[in-house]
Structure formats: C-alpha cells, structure tokens
Amino acid sequence: MADTLAAVVAILSADTGLAAEVGSRIYGGELPAEQAGPRPLAALVASVSGGVSLTGDTYAEFDTRRFDLFAYGRTQSEAVRLADRAELVLRRVRRGVFAGVLVHWVSSAGGATDGRDPALTWPRAFRSFQIAHALEPVA
C-alpha cells in the first residue's frame, strides 16, 4: 500500500513558508517523544483517522483516506495560523507524485477545532482532510 502520511509530509515540507515556520518539524503519525518537551514548539503532525472509502466496494486501483492535521504552536494564535496555512497548502494540491505516492487531490473533510493538546497541554489547532491516492507506490 502507498504511504499516504509520507505523501502528506512531503507536500507540507515542500512549502517554503511552512518550512520557515516549523523547520523540519513536520511528522506523520505522531509527535516524536523527543520533540514533546515542556515548552511548546511550532510543529505539524498528520495522523490517519477513520472515514468512509469512496471506492471500497470497487476494483478501482485508487482510494481515499481521511487524515487529521494537528498544528502546534507556542501560542494558540500561532497554532491556528499554522493550521490555516497548512490547510491552504493541502487544498492547492494538484495531481502528482509525492514521496512515491500518486496523489489525485486533497480536500477538507470536516470542520476545525482549536484548543490544547490534552497530554502535552500545548496550544493546538486541528483540521480534517481526505486524500485520493493510488493504492500502490509509484517509482
């Protein structure tokens, strides 16, 4: 199967504005333990979440997957601004290969929430997306 989180990380990492704000702190899955210190840092984390497959009962060689994007910041306004910028980057994705994954599109899959991460108590903003992708990696 294609690694959709790697594709999302590649898409976000390629944006120079995001890279200027978070550096290399763009992750797939979860925030690494060594990054989760007492002081909040600007970071983005994409994580697979539940959702309905658009092609699950077909023989199509592509599918959709829902993922959630968590933006962390030193302040709540920084987290929201970072999430909004990342959302714009993701909505602008056009068909292409990212980290070996053929991505057809990325779209919003729901609303947004802002608040604090319950475990870290860091300011956090949350957005949901859906990515349409080829099932198998491409060269």
Q: What structural class should be given to the helix and strand makeup?
A: alpha+beta
Average pLDDT metric = 92
| Helix content percent band | 10-25%
Shape: globular
Topology as a string of helices (H) and strands (E): HHEEEHEEE
**Beta-strand percentage?**
35-45%
Spans of at least 5 consecutive residues with low confidence: none
Radius of gyration from the alpha-carbon trace, in angstroms? 15 Å
Number of helices: 3
Q: How many strands?
A: 6
Walk across the major sheet and give the strand order.
1-2-3-6-5-4
Profile the largest sheet: 6 strands, mixed
Q: Gap between N and C termini, in Å?
A: 13 Å
Task: Report what the structure shows.
This protein is α+β, with helices and mostly antiparallel strands. 24% of the residues lie in helices and 37% in strands. A six-stranded mixed β-sheet has the order 1-2-3-6-5-4. The longest helix has 16 residues. The chain is globular and about 45 Å long. It starts with a helix and ends in a 5-residue tail after the last strand.
Features:
alpha+beta, 6 strands, globular, 6-stranded mixed sheet, single chain, 139 residues
